[in-house]
Design goal:
about 475 residues, 5-stranded parallel sheet, 16 strands
Length: about 475
Amino acid sequence: MPMTGAILVVDDDPAICVVVGEALRRQGHKVKTAASIRERTALMQSFAPDILITDVMLPDGDGLDGVAEIIADRPDLNVIILSAQNTLNTAIRATEKGAFEYLPKPFDLNELTRAVADALGTRQSAAEQAGEPGLPHDGLPLVGRSPAMQEVYRTIARVLSNDLSILVLGESGTGKELVAEAIHSLGQRRTKPFVPINMAAIPRELIEAELFGYEKGAFTGAHARTAGKFEQAQGGTLFLDEIGDMPMEAQTRLLRVLQSGEVTTVGGSKPVRVNVRIIAATNKDLPILIEEGRFRQDLYYRLNVVPIALPALRERREDVILLARHFLERAAQEGLPRKSLSDEAAQLLMAWHWPGNVRELQNMMQRLSVLTRENVITADMLRNMLPFDAVPADHAAPADQLVHAVRDWARRQLGIGLAQPNRALHDDLLAVIEPALLQEVLASVDGNQIRAAGLLGINRNTLRKKLTDYGLDPLALRMQDNG
């Protein structure tokens, strides 16, 4: 029997109160609604809810104000924050105040009801998750309000109060180091050093010396004892960028350091105790490297405690204009001429697939700030810089969008070293596309395999074999669609 409780929903949008309230009542919860902080305060006394669901922007103030005090007064109360201000700042603030969950608007109703169920099952977790007060909010490095970035923000917010190892995954140019910097600057170690090291930029023979330091005379040119990155990051965060490029022999020694918490310099014999948080990043598929014997599986498990997957820019196109204007504003703050985007230019930026991701967009905005004389960046200016005649994404034919997606996928496989002579890219692509097609078609016909086979143009036996091969359950798909 699902656990039920008393729930207070606070939002100045009557439609949200009605929809959320009815959904929760159908699950057996007792629900009251409020439209302001004043009404919330009154109902907290008279209604005494088990769960508080509150919006941030309310008519009489900030919905987050007073949440910490409410939780301090009621440690058994769990708070779920809703907000249309979909920024990292909001996610961090919600976590600081002790919120159990943060859901950006527009939210998924099923996700909200699941959060309520989880909150009722862990009544004490909100007080335990409350972050330290006084975290800095200005100058946060990450920009974006897309659903994909919301998930990144929520994960960042959850790791600030602990020292778990983080593995940031994403293509080149997606901002992996910015994520590491955000976790460090907002976390418990922010007063200590943040030390980055790029494994791909250091000669193989020098990686161990860079990481662990070396003694005088350890090798030619070692004129004095030099502390390695681990010692330099003492008490702070060590960011191991492009960890997939680390040589196997260095991986073995890194694993030993992570297990023991001690480093021994090259040429030295006395271990030095180190206390650092490890954040690693890569644009490579580490499980594939493990299969090929190029990356240690035990090291992968040690690093991949909390994975954070950064989306490619083409996977969050709704953030492109926000980022472009952010980079133009930053360029102006750095002394370059202030520029703005025309509407048509903005559409062209949205249409481009950005193989270089956020870094490519940033470089383009800086070039435009320097090279264009006019104050407004036009579509013609962009056409001179983009390598193809982009069409607005909203007007692109679905088939064209699919072609671009397949080409992007192929470029990624070929560009990040995953395509090997003995790997069948054709089969890999089918394994990505075909299950998705089968799932969508089956969901559209409520799991009816005969109708699905007809839509797909294959016979039912072929469909059943494909479902078995991909481990798809048509009944589960139907239930998921209805739920």
